[in-house]
Structure formats: C-alpha cells, structure tokens
C-alpha cells in the first residue's frame, strides 16, 4: 500500500477534460469567493480533510460540545500521542475498540495496529470550530443507536470476520481495493490519503479521492438517479445559492457505511468558506439502520500538493494466502 509520501499520480488528462474557468477577482476572508464563468462558487482544487477531532463525542466529554481556546493544543497533542501505533503497542492490543472488539483477539485487528506509525497521516489539529465531535446532529455529538436490523447486520459482519474465510466476498470492500475507507461517500477522516480533488464545469462536478482514486462524476442537469445500484451509489447535484448539494442513493447491498443497508440516502453539502477552506456537511438517513438521521460537519483545507498515487494491492495479492490459510484451519478442525 502506498501513501501520500510515495509516487506522484499524473492526472493531467482528467484535469484537461474538466478544467474550470475562474473569475479573475481575488478572494480573501470576508471578500467574495472566486467564481466560475457561469457564476457559481469555484470549488476546484485539492482539499485536505485530516483532523484529530473524532467522529463522535468521547464519553468523557459528554456534556461538552466545544473545547475552550486553552484546551485545544493539549487535547490535540494527547490525541496524536494516543494514536501513535508505536507507543504502548502491547497495551493497545488489550483495548476495546469503538465497535466492542478487543484489538488483539479479533481476526482482523484494529487498523491502528496494522502498521507502525510511519505510515499514518491522521493529522495533528482539531477542527477550527473546536467542536468535540464531527457529528453536529444529534446535539449529543453521537451517532444514533442502531435499529434491530442494523445491529443484526453489524453482528453478522463480526461473525463472518471471525470464521475462516469462505471466499473473496467475505472480505471487506476496502481490503479488496474496491472502495476506499475514507473516500466515501460520505467522506470521513481515516488513516491516510485524506485528500480530494474537485473538478468543475457548467454541467458536472467531479470528486476525485486520493484513496483508491475513487472518482464520482456528478451531473448537475437535474436527471434522476435511475434504478441501477452502484458501489458508491448514484450521485446527482444541484446548487442551492452558493452551496453545492449532492444527493446519493442506489447503493449496492454489499456497500456498508457503518452497517448501513442499500436504503442509505445521503445528502452532502459543499460550501466555500474562504479562499483556503471548504465546509463539507453530510446527512445520513437509513431508517433500516439507525433510529434517526444524523449530520456531520467537516472542514476541508486547501492543499498545495497534488493528488498522489494510491496503490491498493494488499487484499488482492493476499487473497490466495487468506483462502489457503482458511482451508488449512478447516482441515485441522480448529
């Protein structure tokens, strides 16, 4: 697996197809954002969405929606230290993950222990709002409870992960290099390659994620979503004032976002805050998975670096060994 420090991906051809003409006006905080030739906010560029702010508000901060200015640096430093894969590795194996699995006893150990710290690129700062979670609704900063059906799907995935692998379909889509675990949709910080390049013209917006190079081509023509399900769903976009709104549905059954079903309905909003910042917000609705919809807000910061190659091969190259090992376990009766 190659991360952002590695080889450069040439994307000139894609860029040439979807180049955007930007108004000449300068942009700064408090001034008008740059606009395209058709008058829409110019969202083009490479945007970085790393942060140490967790998705859900930690239990120890249950009644605290925002950090104070004095708390920010210490909190970020502690999050960086705690996520360092090389510190207290043996103790970390005994910790319980947010999904209730003990790191050192599950067949697929918590991702945090998979590599040493050199390979990670999780970020070092909290979000500028100083929120204690990326979840902004519900107000408690927590993802709503799973429904009975959602809990059953999550338990079934744990069961599958803990038995010998019967076939490639047993393995997660990210492991098989089909989808990226932070490229979405929706996009969420996770591990590394947390960058997205946006291309834009009058008729389309394209979101090219560095993770697995997932490219979502989003028509702006008002067309419907059709009936054919896709790995990353079917996305359609429109403008509401200065906000790009992207509606995605028709996800394949096998695509799972935190145990979601093929009923997942996603609304993403991207707004230009200033020259160097986008505000990315998404609302997740799936009544067969969660007891209520929930919303995340995440800043994306302009990056001066290009999109780099992400060479996802481990799951593909390792599949023969995974399946062979499972057959040995079956024969041994363990």
How far is it from the N-terminal to the C-terminal residue, by CA? 31 Å
What is the name of the CATH superfamily of one domain? Calycin beta-barrel core domain
Rg over CA atoms: 21 Å
User: How is the biggest beta sheet arranged?
Assistant: 10 strands, antiparallel
Structural class: alpha+beta
Mean pLDDT: 85
Low-confidence stretches: 1-31, 98-109
> What CATH architecture of one domain would you give?
Beta Barrel
Q: How would you spell out the order of helices and strands?
A: HEHHEHEEEEEEEEH
Percent of residues in β-strands: 15-25%
The top level CATH class name of one domain: Mainly Beta
Total strand segments: 10
The CATH topology label of one domain is Lipocalin
Q: Helical proportion?
A: 10-25%
Give the count of helical stretches.
5
Gross geometry: globular
Topology:
Elements lengths: L11 H6 L27 E4 L23 H12 L5 H4 L42 E3 L10 H15 L32 E6 L3 E6 L5 E5 L14 E7 L2 E7 L15 E10 L2 E9 L8 E9 L11 H19 L2
Antiparallel strand pairs: 1-3, 1-10, 2-10, 3-4, 4-5, 6-7, 7-8, 8-9, 9-10
């Amino acid at each position: 697996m190659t991360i952002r420090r590695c080889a450069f991906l040439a994307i000139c051809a894609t860029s040439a197809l979807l180049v955007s003409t930007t108004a000449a006006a300068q942009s700064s905080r408090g001034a008008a954002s740059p606009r395209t030739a058709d008058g829409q906010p110019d969202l083009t560029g490479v945007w970085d969405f790393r942060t140490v702010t967790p998705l859900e508000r930690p239990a120890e901060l249950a009644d605290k929606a925002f950090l104070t200015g004095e708390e920010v640096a210490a909190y970020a430093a502690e999050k960086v230290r705690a996520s360092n894969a090389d510190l207290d590795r043996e103790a970390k194996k005994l910790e319980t993950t947010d999904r209730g699995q003990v790191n050192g006893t599950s067949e697929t150990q918590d991702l945090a222990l998979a590599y040493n710290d050199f390979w990670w690129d999780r970020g070092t700062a909290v979000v500028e709002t100083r929120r204690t979670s990326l979840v902004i609704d519900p107000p408690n900063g927590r993802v709503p409870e799973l429904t009975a059906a959602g809990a059953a799907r999550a338990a079934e995935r744990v069961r599958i992960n803990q038995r010998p692998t019967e076939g490639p379909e047993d393995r997660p889509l990210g492991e098989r290099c089909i989808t990226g675990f932070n490229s979405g949709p929706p996009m969420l910080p996770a591990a590394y390659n947390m960058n997205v390049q946006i291309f834009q013209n009058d008729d389309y917006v394209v979101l090219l994620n560095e993770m697995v190079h997932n490219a979502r081509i989003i028509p702006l023509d008002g067309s419907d979503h059709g009936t054919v399900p896709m790995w990353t769903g079917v996305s359609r976009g429109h403008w509401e004032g200065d906000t790009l709104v992207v509606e995605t549905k028709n996800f394949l059954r096998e695509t799972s976002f935190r145990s979601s079903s093929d009923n997942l309905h996603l609304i993403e909003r991207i707004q230009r805050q200033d020259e160097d910042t986008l505000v990315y917000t998404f609302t997740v609705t799936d009544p067969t998975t969660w007891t209520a919809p929930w919303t995340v807000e995440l800043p994306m910061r302009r990056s001066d670096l290009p999109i780099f190659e992400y060479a996802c091969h481990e799951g593909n190259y390792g599949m023969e060994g995974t399946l062979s090992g499972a057959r040995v376990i079956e024969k041994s009766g363990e």
